[in-house]
Amino acid sequence: MNSVLSVNNLSASYRKNTVLHDVNFEVQQGSLTSIVGPNGAGKSTLLKVILELHPKLTGNVEFFGSPYSKVKSRIGYVPQRGSVDWDFPTNALDVVTMGLYGQIGWLKWPKRAHRELAMDALAQMGMADYAERQISQLSGGQQQRVFLARALVQDAELYFMDEPLVGVDAATERAIMDTLKVLKSKGRTVMVVHHDLQTVEDYFDHVLLINRKVMGHGQTKEVFTKDNVYRTYGGSLRWTGEKIS
């Protein structure tokens, strides 16, 4: 398989506190990877540094063998729902259409074909009937579906998603995971910050265990072991699932 992401010697800090230290890993095309670690481990920061939304101290990141600036149109990102201003006056269709601005161009109006693509993405997420609904009027699960539709309409090759399953209902969780598995079946690559240890084995074929540095990375069946999980979480682990081998 081909490498789509290579991270080497990556370090980053917040207010002089190191949150990532000497992070190294490589991601292969067509993998569905869970990024797992305790609170404060640097999971969300890792995505932001990789996508140049937060400065790095040291290290190098390459996508498809190139820097981010040259391939950003091939990359999709779904941030944490809590980081979004849901009171912004716009509807679901407009939010999804924003995912096409790389094709449309800034300060240009979307054409009918762009709107149709956005509607198709909403339909994939079961949200077509809510296209004209203000995003502030949607439930948490519906908002997350809209944001995933925005990522889908980009038709990216590599997706980063920051805790897309947090605070959603069971139906939305199933819909999101079904969508991610379809992306994988099409050869797309997806990396997901995930919080639920009990579903890692069922949902993801690869796992990246992180606590400021990489504690383990590879196929879930090989890396997601009790020893690695406890080493990653240390004294902060309160769940003792029997599914971990």
Write the layout of secondary structure elements.
Elements: E1 3-14, E2 17-28, E3 32-36, H1 43-50, E4 58-63, H2 68-71, E5 75-78, H3 92-97, H4 101-104, H5 112-124, H6 140-153, E6 158-162, H7 170-185, E7 189-193, H8 200-203, E8 206-211, E9 213-219, H9 220-223, H10 226-233
Parallel strand pairs: 3-7, 3-8, 5-6, 6-7
Antiparallel strand pairs: 1-2, 1-4, 8-9
Could you characterize what this model shows?
- This protein is of the alpha/beta class.
- About 35% of the residues lie in helices and about 25% in strands.
- Strands 5-6-7-3-8-9 form a 6-stranded mixed beta sheet, sandwiched between helices.
- Helix 7 (about 170-185) links the parallel strand 6 and strand 7.
- The longest helix has 16 residues, at about 170-185.
- The model has no long low-confidence stretch (mean pLDDT about 90).
Main sheet specs: 6 strands, mixed
DSSP E strands, number: 9
Task: List the strand order in the largest sheet.
Answer: 5-6-7-3-8-9
In whole angstroms, the N-to-C terminal distance is 27 Å
Mean pLDDT: 89
Morphology call = globular
Which H/E pattern describes the elements?
EEEHEHEHHHHEHEHEEHH
Question: Approximately how much beta-strand content do the residues carry?
Answer: 25-35%
Poorly predicted runs of 5 or more residues: none
Structural class: alpha/beta
Assembly classification: single chain
Radius of gyration: 18 Å
Number of helices: 10
The percent range for helix content is 25-40%
